[in-house]
Design brief:
The complex is a heterodimer of chains A (261) and B (216). By secondary structure, chain A is α/β, with parallel strands linked by helices. Chain A has 9 helices and 10 strands. Chain B has helices at 5-43, 49-63, 67-77, 87-112, 116-124, 129-159, 171-182, 186-214. Classes of the chains: A alpha/beta (261), B mainly alpha (216). Chain A: It is a peripheral membrane protein.
Chain lengths: 261, 216
């Protein structure tokens, strides 16, 4: 695996410690429904954190707030000390550079080749030269096992391949944080393992901070440093995966795990 | 009624002149309606009522008044305000403006049909708003609306004879002039009727070829 295409731990020692993501007193309502109610929540740099919990418990809302796809009704959100909310559009754009996201439905750009899906943002956002961006993209495609698909259109790929391109696309921006929103939920069962293996590799070989929402409990157990159990917009239990999965303290956690495991 | 081939051959030089003008109106009018319609559609998305309200009123007004009235208005009233243009230019702008109020709705539907996930991916990659539109949203929206835009081009073709009313000598104008001078109506009108069918047919073939090319 060409490690030069991935975030390099040596170049950024500050990433290995300290708080990277911070939500303070964050409230998010949809109409009358309060999904997050004065939530405090933080993630340390380099950690792999998995959010679990029943649907509607607010896990995905947290990812979408961090990606600025939603605005909180109240509270502050920062990443690496930079303001996401409240913030000016300029501050938000700057802070957002630290964050990448992989979506359930891949959301590749169907009008672009696989290669251009990956080079588009490095060229137009980071101002990278085209050659440099192509080189980085080819390295990433090699890492995700799709070096031969540069010129393909997303529609010509399987779901699993599309999701691996989407992961490469997110990593091309060298974010400090990677948000993974149920990235295997839309995949055919036989394609899930390839994507999860790739994410395990990335978790093992890079210092990227990961925040996952997943229903793949084995995957969560595998890569997480910490598992957070959400219920009704609150963290009701947190701990290392061994503890959460083997000896959950909370009744709701036990109920939830027995339903999904 | 007698069919006179000599009247056909006598009309043909005028027919070619008229055909050229009709095609000019169609091509230039279409371009105006494509560009202006897209501009209206984008302006309607500006999150300010000070923009969307006037644009909405103007385009509703243009869409719901007859093209013929608009042609007369632009041709006879604008010069009084000191704006002068040739009859052909005025006609192209009028027909382009009129059809832009239809194409704007086509674009709007095309833009709304782009999945919200595309906007989200663009945000996640931090693409600037302008780049999101030009590289992600519009290419997908326009690909979807090519068939509908093409249908308006064919509709527009059938409205080009209205420009005769402001002295533009397109196909019908040439046919009428020839008829009045020679008292032969059947042949020139038949010739241009056939020409309209042939042009629409060729245009629909071109459109289908374009749609196939644009399929993912």
């Amino acid at each position: 695996m060409p490690t030069d295409t991935l975030p390099n731990p040596e170049k950024s020692p500050e990433r290995s410690s300290g708080e990277l993501i911070r939500l303070e007193q964050v409230t998010k309502r949809f109409g009358d429904n309060t999904v997050l109610d004065h939530l405090d929540f933080s993630v340390d740099a380099g950690k792999h954190v998995t959010l679990i919990g029943p649907s509607g418990s607010g896990k995905t809302t947290i990812l979408r707030l961090l990606m600025t796809l939603l605005k909180p009704d109240e509270g502050t959100i920062t990443v690496d000390g930079q303001k996401l909310f409240p913030a000016t559009e300029k501050e938000r754009r700057e802070a957002r550079k630290q964050i990448g996201m992989v979506f359930q439905q891949f959301n590749l750009f169907p009008n672009m080749s696989v290669l251009r899906n990956i080079t588009e943002a490095p060229v137009t956002v980071l101002g990278m030269s085209k050659d440099e961006a192509v080189e980085r993209a080819e390295g990433l495609l090699d890492m995700v096992g799709l070096a031969d698909k540069c010129d393909a259109r997303p529609a010509q790929l399987s779901g699993g391949q599309q999701q691996r391109v989407a992961i490469a696309r997110a990593l091309a921006m060298r974010p400090k944080v990677l948000l993974l929103d149920e990235v295997t939920s839309a995949l055919d069962p036989e394609l899930v393992a390839g994507v999860l293996d790739l994410l395990r590799d990335i978790a093992r070989t890079t210092d990227i901070t990961m925040l996952c929402v997943t229903h793949e409990m084995n995957f969560a157990r595998d890569i997480s440093d910490q598992v957070l159990m959400f219920d009704s917009g609150r963290v009701i239990e947190a701990g290392p995966p061994e503890k959460i999965f083997s000896e959950p303290e909370h009744d709701r956690t036990r109920e939830f795990l027995s339903a999904v495991l | 009624m007698k069919w006179d081939w000599s009247a056909v051959s006598g009309f043909m030089p005028h027919f070619w002149d008229g055909l050229l003008v009709t095609l000019q109106i169609l091509v230039l009018g279409s371009l105006v309606s494509f560009v202006l319609g897209l501009a209206w559609a984008l302006l309607m998305r500006v999150p300010s009522r000070f923009v969307t309200w006037p644009v909405g009123v103007v385009t509703e007004f243009v869409r719901n008044t007859p093209l013929l009235v608009q042609l007369f208005f632009l041709f006879y009233v604008l010069p009084e305000w000191g704006v002068t243009a040739s009859a052909l230019t005025t006609g192209v702008l009028a027909i382009g403006l009129h059809y832009s109020t239809y194409t704007m709705q086509v674009y709007r539907a095309g833009i709304e049909a782009v999945p919200v996930g595309q906007w989200e991916a663009a945000t996640a990659l931090n693409l600037p708003m302008g780049r999101t539109w030009t590289a992600v949203i519009l290419p997908q929206a326009i690909r979807r609306v090519v068939p509908a835009l093409g249908n308006y081009v064919i509709s527009m073709l059938k409205d080009t004879p209205l420009l005769m009313a402001i002295t533009v000598l397109e196909m019908l104008g040439e046919a009428r002039l020839f008829s009045q001078q020679n008292f032969q109506f059947t042949e020139p009108l038949t010739v241009i009727g056939v020409a309209f069918i042939v042009i629409s047919y060729l245009a629909s073939l071109a459109l289908r070829a374009l749609e196939r090319r644009l399929a993912h």
